[in-house]
């Protein structure tokens, strides 16, 4: 059976820096490496598509910007996607269409309702939160059920997402595939020659050998200490880092509340550094108050580019992901935990959503209930006070991160055709 051309439909793509944009690009790269003819239908992005066009020259797949699509999930973007779909109906009919993210999913639901051209094969990728909010209202649930019924395969990233989906849409059980994601293809290069892990590999205090020594992130102090570039590099100080957009769902407040519960001796040994774009200014002000009250050394470093994150992780000792579940949003997998693990960091995380697939409790890190601040403080205290435990879990985390590859993802998504 000849291979079908693959179309990846997404409302998030380069140059947008979000996780789903990276995911869509990596799927395209991996499928192209497996010999598939791949096209990506996506928003034009900044600069009227000029930035996207320059990047596309170096990719082994074609990119077709969706005119009028602003990269969101609203009606305007859905309608622009439907117009693009109708205009390229012949390509859809002869393709394997991969619906890659929530915005594209909503458009695809409408395409099915409007009976636009149906692809020869259809795969739907679900990340977690869209399962919740599309199943809450009867009309959305009905639309998604129609699309999933038409799909040839439905892919999720974690066992949690699989359970969540089957609780709401039992009819997908025969076509459901659990396929974890992986670190972006250029991520391991951030570690430098030999996979250097900064000061935890004996590189010397803050030498950051193996990463760009000119890259640093200027941090603003939220606690009692003066601001400084990047995480702490004093060998006597344990640097605890948290990476994620500044938003209540990411739970930075939980980490600060737990820091306040640490014994004074442990708290004085630690430095808490937060990296991430502020998307909720009111929440940032709340974090500033909590930081001042915690008695801990706290720094807010703002959004750090990828090359800066390499230095940030390399000079850290412990990574924390204190995500909070909400009615309409959940941590579907926790890919950032694999990022931290790749740099040899043990992870402390709330046991919510699909995080238990990214963090092996007691092996690569410690999982605690999302509503138990004392349990979070106790886990932090263990890792801050036990360097041997940090090294053991960090090493296991790096091996765990390396076990996920996009090649495996591509082959699970579209199995290779056996030779005749």
Molecular structure report:
The chain has 420 residues and is α/β, with parallel strands linked by helices. It has helices spanning 19-33, 50-56, 75-87, 89-93, 102-113, 129-135, 138-150, 159-168, 252-261, 264-269, 281-294, 306-314, 335-342, 355-358, 373-385, 387-402, 406-413; strands at residues 6-9, 38-42, 62-65, 96-99, 121-126, 153-156, 176-178, 220-221, 238-243, 270-275, 297-300, 318-321, 347-350, 365-368. The strands form 2 sheets. A 7-stranded parallel sheet has the order 3-2-1-4-5-6-7. The longest helix is centred in the C-terminal third of the chain and has 16 residues, at 387-402. The model is unreliable at 202-218 and 220-229 (pLDDT under 50). It folds into 2 domains: 6-182 and 405-413, Rossmann fold (3-Layer(aba) Sandwich), CATH 3.40.50; 192-402, Rossmann fold (3-Layer(aba) Sandwich). The radius of gyration is 22 Å and the shape is elongated. The N and C termini lie close together (9 Å).
Question: What is the structure about, briefly put?
Answer:
This protein has 420 residues and is α/β, with parallel strands linked by helices. The protein is built from 17 helices and 14 strands. β2, α2 (50-56) and β3 (62-65) form a beta-alpha-beta unit.
Q: What's the pLDDT, averaged over the residues? A: 88
Strand content: 5-15%
Can you summarize the main beta sheet?
A: 7 strands, parallel
Assign an overall shape: elongated
Gyration radius from CA atoms, angstroms: 22 Å
The tally of beta strands, per DSSP, is: 14
How many domains, in number, for the residues?
2
Text of the CATH class of the largest domain: Alpha Beta
CATH architecture of the largest domain: 3-Layer(aba) Sandwich
Biggest sheet strand order reads 3-2-1-4-5-6-7
CATH-derived topology of the largest domain = Rossmann fold
Summing up helix and strand content along with how strands pair, one would put the structural category as: alpha/beta
Helix count, DSSP H or I runs of 4 or more residues: 17
């Amino acid at each position: 059976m000849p291979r079908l051309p693959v179309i990846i439909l997404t409302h998030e793509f380069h140059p947008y820096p979000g996780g789903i944009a990276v995911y869509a690009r990596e799927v395209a790269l991996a499928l192209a490496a497996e010999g598939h003819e791949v096209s990506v239908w996506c928003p034009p992005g900044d600069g009227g598509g000029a930035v996207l066009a320059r990047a596309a020259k170096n990719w082994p797949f074609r990119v077709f910007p969706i005119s009028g699509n602003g990269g969101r999930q609203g009606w305007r973007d859905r309608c622009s996607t439907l117009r693009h779909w109708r205009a390229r109906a012949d390509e859809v009919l002869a393709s394997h269409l991969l619906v890659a993210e929530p915005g594209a999913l909503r458009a695809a639901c409408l395409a099915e309702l409007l009976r636009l051209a149906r692809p020869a094969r259809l795969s739907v990728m679900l990340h977690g939160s869209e399962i919740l909010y599309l199943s809450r209202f009867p009309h959305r649930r009905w639309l998604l059920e129609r699309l999933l019924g038409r799909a040839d395969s439905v892919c999720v990233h974690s066992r949690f997402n699989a359970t969540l989906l089957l609780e709401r849409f039992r009819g997908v059980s025969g076509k459901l595939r659990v396929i974890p994601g992986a670190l972006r293809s250029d991520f391991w290069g951030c570690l430098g020659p030999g996979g250097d892990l900064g000061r935890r590999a004996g590189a010397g205090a803050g030498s950051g050998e193996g990463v760009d020594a000119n890259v640093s992130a200027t941090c603003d102090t939220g606690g009692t200490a003066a601001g400084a570039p990047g995480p702490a590099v004093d060998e006597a100080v344990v640097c605890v880092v948290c990476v994620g957009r500044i938003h209540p769902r990411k739970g930075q407040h939980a980490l600060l509340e737990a820091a306040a519960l640490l014994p004074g001796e442990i708290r004085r040994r630690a430095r808490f550094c937060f990296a991430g774009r502020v998307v909720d200014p009111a929440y940032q002000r709340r974090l500033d108050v909590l930081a001042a009250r915690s008695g801990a050394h706290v720094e807010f470093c703002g959004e750090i580019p990828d090359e800066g994150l390499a230095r940030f992780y390399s000079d850290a000792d412990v990574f924390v992901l204190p995500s909070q579940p909400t009615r309409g949003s959940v941590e579907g997998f926790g890919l950032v935990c694999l990022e931290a693990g790749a740099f040899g960091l043990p992870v402390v995380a709330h046991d919510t959503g699909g995080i238990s697939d990214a963090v092996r409790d007691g092996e690569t890190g410690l999982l605690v209930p999302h509503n138990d601040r004392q349990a979070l403080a106790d886990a932090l205290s263990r890792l801050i006070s036990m360097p041997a435990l940090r090294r053991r879990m960090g090493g296991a985390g790096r091996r765990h991160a390396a076990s996920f590859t996009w090649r495996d993802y591509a082959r699970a998504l579209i199995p290779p055709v056996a030779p005749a």
